[in-house]
Amino acid sequence: MTFARAGDLRYVGQGYELRVPFPSGSLDSITIAQVFTAFEALHKAEYGHVFAHSPIEIVNIRLTGIGVMPKIAPPQVTGHGTGQAHLKLE
Fold it and tell me: Where would I find the H helices in 17-85?
């Protein structure tokens, strides 16, 4: 199982957010500053500008758990030539 963290950020007063990945580890003032820098870069790439003097707010924090599951084998058909098919699940 692995986890991915992200936040929905926006400038205060905006009606839309951009999803920004959060780094692993503790969220301290240095990490939050890195997240805000990433938000500004994403905002500039998406909209062509930043609002350098506008405060940024975190609207949502998201944690996604990612698990690896074994592949499920397709059912095998048995009962050849009997006119009835029986499914055998493995």
Answer: 29-47
